[in-house]
Amino acid sequence: MTTPMSTNAALDADEDGEAFAVCLCARYQASPRTSHRQAVKRIFRYLKFTPELGLWYSSGSSLSLRGFSDADHAGCQIDRKSTSGTCQLLGTSLVSWSSRTQGSVSLSSTEAEYIVAASYCSQLLWMKATLSDFGLKYGRIPLLVDSTSAISVAKNPVLHSRTKHIDVKFHFLRDHYEKGDIDLIHVVSTNQLADIFTKPLEFDAFTHLRGYRLKMC
Predict the structure, then answer these.
(1) Domains in the chain, please, with CATH?
(2) What is the value of pTM for the model shown?
(3) DSSP labels for 126-183?
(4) Which of 11, 21, 60, 103 is at 20 to 30 A from 161, Cα to Cα?
(5) Which residue has the higher pLDDT, 138 or 168?
């Protein structure tokens, strides 16, 4: 069992790493079907056959803070809502992650990516404040996004026709970028760690992120 969910499963258009797969199955608790039960069994089989995998926290790791955010635009075939995926690292150690459906339908992939980055910004700021209580000081916290368009929306205060409908609350990201709290950095999709929390991945991409990038061993 090489991945927790099959990329050809008929559950929805979403699945992937264990966290994403579990969150996906949780959406159907109210009225589960045979396909959902099969998906849960696959997750159990994945766990059974990969007991050697786990998160590794090294005493020699730095305490630099950074976050990754990604979105699978309109991935759900039922309501066409996007799936948000985020993760946060201290040095090379994964300390928090999230996979969830966005609350509203996004009209473009840019909007979906911008919304998840804005929502995740508050989590990074909370972690920054918490670590400051222990005497750790940070400048701009890197938030890595693989959408150059979403980064442009956050950095450009001019409202274009395709973005002016985005709820004001999501411009929280732009505000903290301008204040110098967050630094938005582009990352190529193959190294986007949060991708594993948004959708099913092919074997090579899955193992690349799981092993080399997320430091599971």
Answers:
(1) 65-194 (3.30.420.10)
(2) 0.84
(3) HHHHHHHTTT---SSEEEEES-HHHHHHHH--SPPTTTTTS-GGGGHHHHHHHHTSEE
(4) 103
(5) 138
